[in-house]
């Protein structure tokens, strides 16, 4: 490509975990890399409706500073609304997404990626094997595009990619409730997150949660979107549970935000030098809704697929290389979990059987071992 300021090898749209990790990998492999985000990336900046729970393995893998962790977690308490509780031990962390995303974006910049903030994508089209990208501020050119701009991906919408089926979307409501650290420790525990289930009396396909941070409780609720009749009433049903009501006593609302989470793959993940990563591709755990590590890995795999295709001179195999890497690492498991999810949420009996197994095993072990 011509050596112009606005000409790039790879353009990454969206500076979340998937986009930043893709930009990092791209720059490290020597590609001229553009990373675009519609907002400003800073620790106290944009708010992402995300519980923010991550496994401790990920903290160690990326050397995430402990002073940026909102709370260290040692257990996951699973509450069924009929009164039966389950407990799953395991170390993790709860983070603020603005802080986490800034950390990953800084790494991408240090690796050589060029960040363009506060630039909303307006238009994208392919012309003579090059994608022309227009934001509200500037025009850019790139041979490859990484769509890492979330479940509603403006990039893929402009390119007329098919959207998710309703059965593969969860509508969530998130509230950030300000309280005190001492009260959180007293009611929720100093190192515990809480999930709430109940098909008949709470949520048909999904769950609700209380994720404690330093002096804030992230309160969330999520249900399969085509089953939602009145989200406000259904959310209020959750926060009216005695335990939840006590936990939120005297707390103050700081943020309220609805959000969509994909729990099944987009109909396609690659086409014509464009890769869908993270939420944009529906690369999310269909049972737990966990997406951060999958977004990061899919972003890296997309870049590796480009690199492999160029080295082998097989440009027509980029999608195959990408999906094979995803399959080898986790995509087959996520597909199996999507099938298993319907069995798990068939009735409260099967749900509680899963929760009891989840105490001792990873969800992937339960599903791939056909324990349910």
Give a brief description:
This protein has 372 residues and is of the alpha/beta class.
Shape: globular
Structural class: alpha/beta
CATH superfamily of the largest domain: FAD/NAD(P)-binding domain
Question: The CATH topology of the largest domain, please?
Answer: FAD/NAD(P)-binding domain
The amount of beta strand, in percent, is 25-35%
The largest sheet, given as strand count, sense and whether it forms a barrel, is: 8 strands, mixed
Order of helices and strands: EHEEHEEHEEEEHEHEEEHHEEEHHHH
Mean pLDDT: 95
Distance between the termini: 53 Å
Number-wise, the strands total 16
Question: Helical proportion?
Answer: 25-40%
**Treating each run of at least 4 consecutive H or I residues as one helix, how many helices?**
11
At CATH's second level, what is the architecture of the largest domain? 3-Layer(bba) Sandwich
The radius of gyration is 21 Å
Number of domains: 2
Oligomer description: single chain
Describe the structure.
- The protein is an alpha/beta fold.
- It has 2 domains: 7-45 and 99-163 and 264-340, FAD/NAD(P)-binding domain, CATH 3.50.50.60; 53-95 and 166-262, D-Amino Acid Oxidase, Chain A, domain 2 (2-Layer Sandwich).
- Helices cover 33% and strands 29% of the residues.
- The protein contains 11 helices and 16 strands.
- Strands 1, 2, 6, 7, 8, 9, 15 and 16 form an 8-stranded mixed β-sheet that branches. An 8-stranded mixed β-sheet has the order 3-5-4-11-12-13-10-14.
- The longest helix is centred in the C-terminal third of the chain and has 27 residues, at 318-344.
- The chain is globular and about 60 Å long.
